[in-house]
Amino acid sequence: MDDIIETARECGSFKTLLNALETAGLKDLLINKGPFTLYAPDDDAFSTFSEKELDNLLADKEELKQILLYHITGGKAMLQDAVQLKSMRTLQGGDIIAEESGDDVNVNNAKVVHSDIECTNGVIHSIDRLLNPE
């Protein structure tokens, strides 16, 4: 078992997210600290952005950092724990809501695609879109 960053790299479906975390200066946080829960938009989530939109997102490092911090909560919350908690405070300061919708679990407006990917310093839940801070 590896840390959040190495686990995400090994999954192979978080290349854009890993690039964004590096650009925003958050990579070391997810290697050396924790535990954290990362709601990780996969590469398909970023494919909805045009190349220009993605470049603009990556260009504003402070805004990018705030958006990415909104995808991270303190502590290790397996998906069922997150649903029971319902509301979780992110490292950005805003709250995200996890709720069941039929057989799916949604975090805000994003569907959880893969859950409970355990890491040495937390857990990753893969989601199908970027979360927008409130």
From TrEMBL:
PROSITE patterns xref list: FAS1
Pfam families in alphabetical order: Fasciclin
Lineage: Archaea, Methanobacteriati, Methanobacteriota, Stenosarchaea group, Methanomicrobia
Record-given protein name: Beta-Ig-H3/fasciclin
InterPro entries: Adhesion/Biosynth-related, FAS1_dom_sf, FAS1_domain
FAS1 domain boundaries: 1-131
SMART domains the UniProt entry points to: FAS1
